[in-house]
Structure to design on (211 residues):
């Protein structure tokens, strides 16, 4: 099912860190256990803003005690990404763009850390998308929204990998290669060549021409 899925560098780093700390199965990913493994504190407060405060040596993650277990777990893995990936406290930053960048990075980290690929790739998953989402919800104790984001992310990456593979195979085709070579002699920018090559390859594939 996942043979065309390519892990990102961040995913691989998270996998390596998790394995080094003995976080090997979904049952190991409780908030208390993960925080303990990383040596971080977790404080639950009624109505508290969900956030992490950290420096180079320590971190404290604050969670709203009114959150459900599944929602709290998702927020926790988002906040966990800040001390593990970022230096400097966000409240000291003056650039909104930089804060937004860190939030986007933490969102990516959240999906990888809450549902590590190495933990669920060998699960007995159903064929339907909704069935897979339900398994992730149960196994990783997260909410449906987060599980769906992870499934959608995986689908997009598999599709991209498949398209890249098809594109590479078509570029290796003699007709496409020769056409691109002729374009190259006319000093056309490489990105334009790639676009033309992709358009040609799709046209040839659509017309089912044997090349």
């Amino acid at each position: 099912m996942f043979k065309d899925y390519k892990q990102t560098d961040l995913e691989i780093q998270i996998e390596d860190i998790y394995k080094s700390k003995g976080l090997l199965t979904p049952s190991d990913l409780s908030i208390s256990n993960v925080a303990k493994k990383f040596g971080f504190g977790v404080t639950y407060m009624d109505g508290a803003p969900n956030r992490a405060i950290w420096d180079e040596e320590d971190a404290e993650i604050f969670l709203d005690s009114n959150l459900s277990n599944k929602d709290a777990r998702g927020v926790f893995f988002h906040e966990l990404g800040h001390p593990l990936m970022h230096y400097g406290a966000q409240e000291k930053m003056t650039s909104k763009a930089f804060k937004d960048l860190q939030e986007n990075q933490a969102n990516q980290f959240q999906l990888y850390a809450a549902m590590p690929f190495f933990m669920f790739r060998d699960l007995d998953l159903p064929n339907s998308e909704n069935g897979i989402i339900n398994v992730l919800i149960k196994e990783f104790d997260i909410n449906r929204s987060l599980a769906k984001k992870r499934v959608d992310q995986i689908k997009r990456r598999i599709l991209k990998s498949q398209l890249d593979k098809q594109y590479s195979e078509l570029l290796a085709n003699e007709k496409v290669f020769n056409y691109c070579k002729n374009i190259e002699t006319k000093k056309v920018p490489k990105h334009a060549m790639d676009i033309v090559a992709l358009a040609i390859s799709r046209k040839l594939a659509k017309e089912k021409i044997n090349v």
